[in-house]
Amino acid sequence: MATISSENDKTIRKSMLVEFKMPIADNSGVLTFYTDSSRKIYDFTLNNTTFPMRKLADLQGDGFPLDNSCKLYDPNTSASSLNGKIGLRGNIGDPLSFRVASTTRINALRIKSSGTRRMNIVATGAESVAYDLTGDDTIVPPENSQNFTVFFYPETPETRVEIDFIVLPQYLVINNHNLIRANLALRTNMAPDNPTWQESNIEVQAHFPNDMMSLLRTFLTNWSITYQAGYNQQMSPLRYFYINEPIVQDDNVVTIRATDASRFMEGVTLQKQGFGAIGNNKPWGAGETATCKDSLTTQTFTTRVRSELMKSGAGGVPGIRSVIPTTTYDFYGYNVRPEMSLKDFIMTIMNLTEDQQGRQTPIYKFSYVDAGIPTINCDNLDTIVRRINYEDLANIERTYAQPIKRVEAAAQERPFDCILFTTSDPIYTQLIDWAADSVVEFTPTQEQEMAEFGAANGGRSTFINWTTEKAVMKVNTSGTAAPNYKPLLTSGGTTYYDDVSLAEGKTIQMESMSRGFRLGDVYVFSPRYLSQRKTNYVSFEWKGDPRWQPRDWINIPGGYGYPSFYGVIESIEITHEGGGTRQKVVAQERKYVD
Amino acid sequence: MPTTQWTWRTPVTDRADGYTRMRYTDMNRITQNINYLVDYAADLGFSIVRKYCQKSTWTQNDIIYLAEWNSLLERLNAVANAVGYKYEGFAPSTWMTYTNINNVEKMTLGVYTTLTLAERNHMPLYVGDNLFAGDGFNAAIAVPSTT
Question: What is the pTM of this model?
Answer without folding.
Answer: 0.70
